[in-house]
Write a structure and sequence with these properties.
Layout lengths: L3 E5 L3 H15 L6 E5 L48 H5 L9 H13 L7 E2 L2 E9 L4 E8 L4 E7 L1 E4 L21 E4 L13 E5 L3 H12 L4 E6 L12 E5 L1 E5 L2 E4 L4 E3 L2 E4 L27 E2 L3 E2 L5 E3 L9 H16 L7 H16 L4 H17 L8 H17 L33 H4 L22
Parallel strand pairs: 1-2, 1-7, 2-3, 7-18, 8-15, 9-10, 9-15, 10-11
Antiparallel strand pairs: 4-5, 5-6, 12-13, 13-14, 16-17
């Protein structure tokens, strides 16, 4: 009987797993019997943005945390597939920081060239999983949301590819329940147009706070205050943006901060992160971790330590994204098929501890980028995934972070070089600050004047050779 593999989630990680098996099939290898379950009506995971918040049409928690006017906040050259370049997909150079719809088109482009759609069951949500130690089989119960019927499937291997940026982590603040304005988590943010003329308080000091705050500035917010728990981001913010230590409590519409300052606000956006949450898994199989570069209990960041038939993709904090999911999927595939032999439990634990000890000693973003580059290098070296220049990509991350510190509103206008093709990205026809149409059609149009009547902005080239 053929090996049976179940994949939960058809976002970038689940699609990477499908693509890994398809790559093996194209090279003449026999592949397992595969079924992939996706609760949404289309594949793409987070990249299927929605106007809905809270619950979807079937009463399921909305998965996506994306929003209108979301542009990539990192260079596309850092997430490029090594076996499917942006040049191949678009037929020409594009800018380094595309909007969501453009990146979604790229993600879909690769899998649409493969015969993998047949493995995906859409509108199907995982409900319950059990594992039989004697037979070494998973029993997975799923529900077809279109019909309301449940089915049970038996698998030898199970891949969890549901991501970990969809279940909000929502802290409590004294007095916030009587705040008279709007309070939301970043997961429910769908666009900053509503914030024009408003005084915003962003609680958090990472990518969501930074990006939503600058979206709000772009859309005409009166002021943006970023409240941090441990340290300020320290960017050169625009005139209407400040950073303050963590909120201690609210008095009506007034927030009071640890440094003794206070401010009056119309809106509070909690950019306070997400939880690892896997309601379809029993506790003994469910990952519990903060958002870190190397979660404990996953060998090579992928294989569940106590059960090497269970795999997690994309479970870590991410500098790399799409190409890291690929490397993980290739590694998971080879473990499943026996091409990679698992070391003993003790050897795996020793390997995990080495990575955790190094992680504990990381001092800054540059060190973190190098750390995750080394992690990818190890995965790629273990498989036949097409290699690429990881040192060059790590340098791209460092250039990008430096550009952000120098110009938080202009770093998306910089150009970078692809490590896959050597192509230098195009300068986009409109500066990010002035780009009010984030559609694929507008993005791919030829050069034109900025909406403010000026010529296209000069950019600082940050090219990694």
């Amino acid at each position: 009987m053929a090996l049976r593999v179940g994949i939960i989630g058809a976002g970038p990680s689940g699609l990477a797993q499908l693509r890994a098996f398809e790559s093996a099939r194209q090279k003449g290898a026999a592949i397992p019997d595969i079924l992939c379950f996706e609760k949404q009506a289309d594949w793409g995971g987070q990249w299927n943005n929605s106007w809905r918040i809270g619950l979807d049409a079937h009463g399921e928690p909305v998965h996506t945390s994306m929003y209108r006017h979301l542009w990539s906040n990192g260079p596309k050259e850092c997430l490029e597939f090594s076996d499917y370049s942006f040049d191949e997909h678009f037929g020409r150079a594009i800018s380094s920081f595309p909007p969501r719809e453009v990146l979604f088109d790229y993600i879909k482009g690769r899998v649409e060239k493969s015969d993998v759609r047949k493995y995906v069951r859409l509108n199907t949500v995982a409900r319950h999983t059990s594992y039989n130690e004697d037979t070494q089989e998973f029993t997975l119960t799923v529900e077809d949301l279109s019909t309301g019927t449940t089915e049970t499937h038996i698998f030898d291997k199970l891949v969890v590819a549901t991501g970990h940026f969809s279940v909000p982590s929502v802290p409590e603040f004294t007095g916030i329940k009587t705040f008279p304005g709007e309070v939301m988590h970043a997961h429910d943010f769908r666009g900053a147009e509503r914030f024009a003329g408003k005084r915003l308080l962003m609680v958090g000091s990472s990518y969501s706070a930074e990006d939503i705050g600058m979206q709000a500035h772009k859309m005409g917010a009166a002021s943006i205050t970023l409240s941090y728990r441990t340290a300020p981001m320290g960017y050169h913010w625009p005139w209407n943006t400040v950073e303050r230590p963590l909120v201690t409590h609210f008095d009506g519409g007034t927030a009071r901060f640890r440094d003794g300052t206070q401010g009056d606000f119309d809106v509070v956006v909690l950019c306070t992160g997400y939880q690892h949450k896997y309601p379809f898994l029993p506790s003994e199989l469910s990952l519990k971790s903060a958002n870190v570069l190397y979660p404990a209990n996953l060998y090579k960041g992928v294989v569940w330590q106590q059960n090497t038939n269970l795999f997690y993709l994309g479970a870590q904090d991410q500098y790399y994204t799409f190409n890291m999911f690929d490397a993980q999927a290739w590694f998971a595939r080879d473990v499943m098929t026996g091409a990679i032999e698992m070391p003993s439990l003790a050897e795996r634990e020793a390997d995990i501890q080495l990575w955790l000890e190094r992680q504990a000693g990381l001092t800054d973003h540059d060190a973190e980028a190098d750390y995750q580059s080394d992690y990818l290098r190890e995965l790629i070296n273990a498989t036949d995934y097409p290699s690429f220049d990881l040192d060059a990509v790590s340098q791209l991350f460092k250039d990008w972070m430096r550009n952000k510190h120098e110009d938080i509103l202009g770093y998306r206008d910089a150009v970078h070089r692809s490590v896959v093709t050597g192509t230098v990205s195009a300068t986009h026809h409109t500066r990010w600050l002035n780009a009010m149409d984030d559609s694929l059609e507008r993005y791919l149009e030829g050069p034109s004047q900025d909406v403010d009547g000026g010529t296209p902005a000069a950019v600082t080239s940050s090219v990694a050779v």
